[in-house]
Design a protein that fits this description.
alpha/beta; 474 residues; 11 helices; globular
């Protein structure tokens, strides 16, 4: 009995010593890898929420895409895990023989999963009702969303790139990453000295290609660029493309609503439905007497959260924020969606006056939050009914499968770190962040947030070294 009591006393003495050594080791690696300035670090026990370590933990920092952690948790709570986006096909007019003497309407809610196969289904619905010709126009009712199509902080030089796509209630995605508001442009080399062949997915969608590129020898360097000219529908393809080296890139739509309507019209024509030569493509509210022919329903939100977080999809973030604004305040605008984010955070017990937000994606350099608040979110979200969906949608370090590993698939590849970091990455100019959960070698699970700002060089490797030390020390 005395021996047992002595062991207990020794353990009680050693535990604080072990904790001190762990903290000391973490402090040393942070000092060595990240320094003291322009960083904010927070480490918490997953069961109690106790802060085990912090460095500048209450200093507001730019979060980059780690802000998506709040957006995902809020969307699952406010919209519900089974929430679906709807896109509806209407007609307004009389069908005479095989001709619609009137107009076609598309009504959208921001569905990021709308694709060409759905346009083909719309065409099949029209043909089911005997419509082979349309004498009127094709209109888009995109008034579920309002305000600027771009979130604050997006600079003109970024507008061509998929991560800065415009957000509209009628939009489309060229693939199953659901980068809504974009096209894929493929350049295929031809003969040396000639322009490459250009293909657009799903189709040109009202865009214009200016092909200035050249096919060059297989030994030459690839210098091809594919960019949308600022504030236009013109896509400029330039540079050299070696034989045998096809290239593709994503470009944003100038106006997702109008460009998507062009894509739908072109698909209808491919499916054998003709329009009058003077048919217009415009925005317009659906008339009261319009007839609903078909409704496309997106996958449930619980399935959409996975590509959102795993692939750090800004388009989905912007759509979710506007949708939350619409559902909570009746205003499908970014600022109302941000307001909904703050109310949700407050309901969780977060200190939201330490969160300064302009969007839900993290792309704005004006966003600010603290590492302690971000790690607190990771503790509190465990009590949410949709936590399992939230957790299993995070990237997994070392999982090389693109969907499972997501933005961490090329990090933490080796034992003992592989599969131990389940977290959201973040990066904008000068900002490198990571926040989530770490499973240590001792069997503990910790919540962490590491935010670095004003960095002159890439800090990913340094952040990873800190996490590796946490894996082995706690």
């Amino acid at each position: 009995m005395k021996r047992i009591n002595l062991l207990i006393v020794i353990m009680l003495i050693l535990l604080p010593v072990q904790k001190f050594h762990a903290i000391s080791n973490i402090e040393q690696v942070i000092q060595h890898q990240l320094g003291n300035n322009s960083i904010s670090v927070s480490l918490r026990a997953i069961d109690t929420g106790e802060i085990l370590y912090e460095k500048n933990g209450n200093v507001p920092m730019k979060p980059a895409s780690t802000l998506k952690l709040l957006t995902a948790a809020a969307a699952l709570d406010i919209l519900g895990s089974n929430y679906r986006f709807h896109t509806k096909l209407y007609i307004d007019g009389e069908v005479v023989v095989d001709e619609l003497k009137g107009d076609v309407y598309i009504k959208g809610e921001g569905d990021p999963t709308l694709q060409k196969q759905n346009f083909e289904t719309f065409a099949a619905a029209l043909k089911f009702y005997g419509i082979r010709k349309i004498s009127g126009n094709i209109y888009g009712d995109d008034f579920a969303f309002s305000g600027d199509q771009l979130t604050p902080g997006i600079v003109s030089s970024d507008e061509s790139y998929y991560y800065a796509a415009r957000t509209s209630a009628i939009t489309m995605s060229p693939d199953n990453d659901y980068d809504a508001g974009t096209l894929i442009i493929e350049a295929i080399p031809t003969k040396i000295g000639q322009v490459p062949d250009i293909h657009a997915i799903p189709n040109l969608s009202g865009m214009i290609i200016q092909n200035n590129a050249r096919t060059v020898s297989p030994n030459d360097k690839t210098t091809i660029e594919i960019k949308r000219q600022y504030q236009t529908n013109t896509i400029i393809v330039s540079g050299n493309l070696p034989v045998g080296d096809p290239f593709k890139d994503w470009v944003t739509l100038q106006d997702p609503t109008i460009n998507t309507l062009h894509a739908i019209k072109q698909t209808f024509e491919e499916e054998g439905i003709t329009f009058s030569p003077n048919a217009n493509i415009e925005r317009k509210k659906i008339p009261k007497n319009a007839i609903l022919l078909y409704a496309k329903h997106s996958t449930a939100l619980k399935n959409l959260i996975k590509p959102f977080l795993k692939l750090s999809n800004n388009s989905i973030a912007d759509i979710l924020v506007k949708t939350m604004g619409k559902e909570v305040y009746g205003k499908g605008q970014t600022d109302y969606g941000v307001k909904a984010l703050k109310i949700y955070g407050q309901s969780m017990g977060l200190t939201m006056d330490q969160w300064f937000l302009e969007d839900g994606s993290g792309i704005s350099h004006n966003n600010r939050l603290t590492a302690n608040e971000l790690s607190h979110l990771l503790i509190k979200v465990q009590d949410e009914p949709n936590f399992e969906t939230f957790y299993t949608s995070l990237p997994i370090g070392g999982q090389e499968d693109r969907i499972e590993g997501g933005s961490l698939r090329k990090r933490f590849l080796l034992a003992p770190y592989k599969d131990r970091i389940i977290a959201k990455t973040g990066h904008i100019s000068g900002v490198y962040t990571l926040a989530g959960y770490v499973n240590t070698k001792s069997g503990r699970t910790l919540a962490f947030a590491i935010l670095t700002n004003n960095q002159p060089s890439n800090k990913i490797d340094e952040i990873d070294e800190v996490l590796k030390k946490i894996v082995t020390q706690y």
